[in-house]
Design goal:
This protein has six helices and two strands; from the N terminus they run αββααααα.
Length: 123
């Protein structure tokens, strides 16, 4: 695939959500190819985190600007919002959150259950 084809296959959609004024997130920007690159660059330039899901982007780019996300896509959009809620957390914050979710067990077992190494010097 050529670099030109790569650009043509890029898709981007920007969503906005105002929980007081909208029932669902709304598409505020959408594009493929060059326009997708511009949307992504604008997000990066403004510190907006980016979530990549080519299949979802394909579906969303087929909707008109200003369209609320259809109910059929709510689960996918919730996954994105959960990702963004966790986006700014540090590794330590994530580890603390995982520890709270584990049932009471010794520290060594908790570390193994979380899939990480236990630092025996920390408290």
């Amino acid at each position: 695939m050529s670099a030109f084809d790569d650009v043509l296959n890029q898709k981007a959609v920007a969503l906005s959500y105002d929980e007081e004024g909208q029932a669902a997130p709304v598409i505020v920007a959408s594009g493929v190819g060059y326009m997708a690159r511009r949307i992504i660059q604008a997000a990066k330039d403004n510190g907006v985190p980016i979530y990549e899901d080519n299949s979802l982007a394909t579906v969303l780019t087929q909707l008109d600007l200003g369209t609320e996300i259809p109910e059929e896509l709510y689960a996918a959009i919730v996954d994105i919002y959960v990702y963004f809620l966790n986006y700014g957390k540090t590794k330590k914050e994530k580890e603390k959150a995982e520890e709270k979710e584990l049932p009471d067990q010794p520290a060594e077992e908790a570390g193994e259950a979380a899939g990480g190494d236990v630092d025996e010097t920390s408290t």
